Amino acid sequence: MARKITYKQAINEALAQEMARDSSVIAMGEDNVGGAGAEGEKDAWGGVLGVTKGLYGRFGDRIMDTPISESAFIGAAVGAAACGMRPVAELMFVDFMGVCFDQIFNQAAKFRYMFGGKAVTPVVIRTMYGAGFRAAAQHSQCLYSMFAHIPGLKVVVPSTPYDAKGLMIQAIRDNDPVIFFEHKVLYTLEGEVPEGAYAIPFGEADVVHEGDDVTIVTLGRMVHFARDAAQTLAKRGIDCDVIDLRTISPLDEETILESVNRTGRLVVVDESSPRCNVATDIAALVAQKAFAALKAPIEQVTPPHVPVPFSDALEDLYVPDAARIAQAVTSVMEFKR
Amino acid sequence: MSATLTRDDLLRAYRTMRTIREFEERLHVEFATGEIPGFVHLYAGEEASATGVCLHLRPDDRIASTHRGHGHCIAKGMEVAPMMAEIYGKKTGICGGKGGSMHVADLDVGMMGANGIVGGGGPLICGAALAAKMKGTDGVGVCFFGDGASNQGMILEAMNLATVWRLPALFVAENNGYAEATSSKYSVACDNIADRAGGFGMPGVIVDGHDFFAVHEAAGEAIARARAGGGPTLLEVKLNRYYGHFEGDQQTYRATDEVKRIRETRDCLMLFTRRVSSAGLLDLAELEAIDRDVAAQIDAAVVAAKAAPKPTAADLLTDVYVEYA
């Protein structure tokens, strides 16, 4: 039975159900228990934003606090995965990838290929991303494109509680390394989520709004702004397909191309920095494979090429919003050759 | 001499060390012909370390290795013919020609890979040890690394984590005196790498890496303690490499007669042979028979590797994912 829970609760529930189902699933991260070795209560935090809260009580030593030592514990999760476990490690903020990226892109991603197809490394790395918390340049970035660039990794970016649960269950059951991006602003978002376990396959985008005039391709938090824009535009007689990619590696090219071939117009909305990001990737895909269908130049809605600023006045200007998306859609509709 | 070593153990140890030596000496010759792609980093001179440690290990124990990893592979039980074919970049290689010398691995024998990243194996072996602990086996994880990696954050973080989680792990610092062309006297801030063990809450032991028996004994104590739940150890093995950082290295940073002097006075195979023959444990004739057998085995491996087919275009795109939509 479905009931309303938050994005954060959906991820916690997915972890709990998979840990109950499969004893090889373990979880680790900074403060994932919270309070290990301290005199106060155990399970004090459940991760810095509380996603793993309550799991320690149910699963004991299968959920572990780690030192602030990302190379060691992300690498340990990778090594344990190659030795038969299914670890879920929390890289607190994706901005911290700089201190442990070797273990992700040189080790986890490459084992299978380098070892001639003999390695299976079912590790999940959960990580928080995104602007909106006034957390500034080192705690707000949107770095999924950098992971999608690496062969051997799968990259998942859920936008709703329903998707977060189903994609997390798939991530844990998947036999390849998965980087799971959780937008910290979405943690409190509520949505209908079935109580039972279900897996959403990777590489299947979700069309969250339908229309034949313009295709909007987006992901993560931007899906909500894109849908808001599409609803506003519909009142003005402009009908948009809004495609939530859900995973960017693998990428559902078919859904994107089918839509653009129908609408002839593309707006890509991406919260990551504008150079070499998901928006440029989708734009290149469409320019190459649906060129003949295009009636207007492809528009990209992204932040500017600057670090995420601190002041609320600046951060609000930095993050794309529904108005900017609507403006981009209007411009492709008004384009004349 | 360690009371735990049977006659079979001694024969096995000698065969392993001789196999590594023959493998590497042959690669030294073959690499010069230009037929082997890429780079090779030879382990010759360091055989007593891999052999002394790995003689204690079971197939379900895991090791992580380095760019200088051939010796660890052989000591952990990897077959030499598919290993040689891998180094030649052939389809019959243990990794299908996709890994090469720096990434050769055989998970079936607990060998988690040579590693092109200095220090990369430290965190991985914490994971292997964690898996053994979680599954309730008494398996161990052994991380081999060099004096260069001893300054690398991944190794230092891994040692801290291993103690924090009380993992069944052994960190073997193979200090051959040079990180590429830079002396460890310059790059390591303390006198001995093992001196750092106290900072990570584990015992630190220094052992002469030319002496198989010393390595075997020290590793045996550390591994037994790890299996019993006593936590990790840092074992510093002081040894020498007989060749350059990689093949083709002119080694102008080393004293002119440095390697010659070590080969003549402290060679691990020579010391082993002297000791077992003077104690009457093994006959020289037995050892010579092993030498002949190993030479023939390595020769056959080279012949087979040279004759084997290369991977084809169809192999380029496989083995990236288990499944990719």
Query: What is the highest CATH level, the class of chain B?
Result: Alpha Beta
Using only C-alpha atoms, the radius of gyration of chain A works out to 20 Å
Distance between the termini of chain A: 52 Å
The CATH architecture category of chain B equals 3-Layer(aba) Sandwich
Please state the average pLDDT score of chain B. Answer: 97
Shape verdict of chain A = globular
Shape of chain B: globular
Could you tell me the CATH topology label of the largest domain in chain A.
Answer: Rossmann fold
Number of strands of chain B: 7
Radius of gyration of chain B: 19 Å
Helix content of chain A: 25-40%
CATH topology annotation of chain B: Rossmann fold
- Could you name the CATH homologous superfamily of chain B? Thiamin diphosphate (ThDP)-binding fold, Pyr/PP domains
CATH class of the largest domain in chain A: Alpha Beta
Provide the helix percentage of chain B. Answer: 40-55%
Could you give a short account of the major beta sheet of chain A?
A: 7 strands, mixed
